[in-house]
Amino acid sequence: MSKLPKEHQFLDLSDYGRPVARIIANSLKHTSFTPIHVTISFIIAGLVAIVCLLNQYYWATLFFLVLKSILDAADGELARLKKTPSYTGRYFDSVADIILNLLILIAIWHVSSESWFLTVLAFVGLQLQGTLYNYYYVILRKNKSGDTTSRIFENETPIALKGESQRSVNIFFTLYSLLYGVFDRIIYALDRKAENSNSFPNWFMTAVSTFGLGFQLLVIGCMLVLGLRDYIIPFFIGYSLFILIFILLRRFINR
Q1: Which domain holds residue 138?
Q2: Measured distance CA(116)–CA(100) in Å, rounded
Q3: Using only C-alpha atoms, what is the Rg of the chain?
Q4: Residues 127-176: pLDDT tens digits?
Q5: Residue 199 is part of a domain; what is its CATH number?
Q6: Which of 78, 111, 131, 148 shows the smallest number of beta carbons within 10 Å?
Q7: Reduced to 3 states, what is the DSSP secondary structure of residue 112?
Q8: What's 6's DSSP letter?
């Protein structure tokens, strides 16, 4: 099940794992497995990828990073199939992502020759890229009657949905706010008028989807396999310049 109506769907380069994710979700539809269980499985896949990276098993690292991306899509697919959307699952997923991202970059720092400062800079760039993509994507979904679990502005604790406890929502929303709040505020400050955009052309969203986490992890895995581990951190620092380019392009489109 897509997050957008068919007529507004675009080629999402970060969502290459969706077809396999749908197969996994369909196979779990009538089982006791919940979306939270699938989220836990992608955390395990991410941690295994980090262990492989630290031991310089780069093909295995690529495999588990791709597996992590597939499972990351499968939890949402399963939630939609079972008609059990939850804010707990949405924030748990995001909290797991940012922690894994940090650990992956620390592991890259460990096996490469980069400094701590540049590693932190790359992490900030990585998160801002993902935040811009999510910002535009959530606005698009809202404007085109798509999935509504994610909100444009995560500035207040939502009311728990059916089947989840308010306490769990409160805990995971607090964690989300602590980890993502600064990135959300930076992107909003850079493009606060994006919410009023009339449209995001499919080609534009496809370009911005290179900021999506799935694509970022694929780039990391491929660069490791190609022997370019020392260029990963500089790449994500440099690619962050496209944040401003995409924002300017969005303003031009909706001028």
Answers
A1: 15-253
A2: 17
A3: 18
A4: 999 999 999 998 988 877 655 556 777 888 999 988 899 999 999 999 99
A5: 1.20.120.1760
A6: 148
A7: coil
A8: G
